[in-house]
UniProtKB/TrEMBL annotation:
Record's keyword annotation contains Membrane: no
Pfam short name (any one): MerR_1
SUPFAM superfamilies: Putative DNA-binding domain
SMART domains tied to this protein: HTH_MERR
Protein keywords: DNA-binding
Limits of the HTH merR-type domain: 19-87
Organism placement in taxonomy: Bacteria, Bacillati, Actinomycetota, Actinomycetes, Kitasatosporales
Transmembrane segments: none
Domain of life assignment: Bacteria
Keyword flag DNA-binding: yes
Single GO molecular function: DNA binding
Protein name (database record): MerR family transcriptional regulator
Length: 112
């Protein structure tokens, strides 16, 4: 079977593919499953559920959880850390949109 048609190979570069079980995600990040559940309850990440009801996490979600963990390790409460990470993401999205709008208006990339 060619590599590009092997099951799951198309997801290797997909940051949103839910490839990690809760246990594996926690091990990769060096955190507890309870922390992953806490950031899920806070609404920061919403893992996909398998048919059996098990949580599955993507690499993007792992990065988000890791950022929240950094803030918690600095003394920020979990709920506040989740809100901060959410606001950071919204600000990054706004900056991207602003750059795109400027490019369209000016016909060039403002970062160059």
């Amino acid at each position: 079977m060619p590599a590009e048609s092997a099951p799951g190979v198309g997801h290797l570069d997909d940051d949103d593919y839910p490839a990690y079980t809760m246990g594996r995600a926690a091990a990769v990040l060096g955190i507890t499953p309870a922390f992953l559940r806490a950031v899920g309850r806070a609404g920061l990440i919403d893992p996909l559920r398998s048919e059996g009801g098990h949580r599955r996490y993507s690499r993007r979600q792992l990065r988000i959880a890791a950022r929240a963990r950094e803030l918690v390790d600095q003394g920020t409460p979990v709920e506040a850390a989740c809100r901060i990470v959410s606001l950071e993401d919204q600000l990054a999205d706004a900056h991207r949109l602003n750059r795109e709008m400027r490019r369209k208006l000016n016909g060039r990339d403002p970062d160059t």
